[in-house]
Design goal:
The chain is an alpha+beta fold. The chain has three helices and two strands; from the N terminus they run αββαα. It has a domain of about 35 residues. The N and C termini lie far apart (about 45 Å).
């Protein structure tokens, strides 16, 4: 495990080192989640909502060509279907 000592400013601010920001995709003006733990704080990066929306749109376009509707497999017993 890597440990890096970081100084806390008089305003309670810290700077996340560049190598860690890049490794965990923390970009300028993005948000992180700080989660209190018994032994300290956990800082987690979160995905950019715009990237998530773009992924959903691309996924929707890929599956639009698939024929069928939700519930089409309701009458099929998948356990029987995949038994040898």
């Amino acid at each position: 495990m890597v440990r890096i000592r970081i100084k806390v400013s008089s305003k309670g601010q810290i700077v996340i080192p560049k190598m860690l920001r890049e490794a965990y995709k923390i970009k300028e003006n993005s948000y992180v989640i700080i989660e209190p733990r018994d032994d300290g704080l956990l800082i987690k990066s979160i995905e950019d909502p715009d990237e998530v929306i773009n992924w959903i749109k691309a996924r929707k376009q890929r599956i639009e060509g698939i024929k069928g509707k939700l519930g089409d497999l309701a009458h099929i017993d998948l356990e029987e279907e995949f038994e040898d």
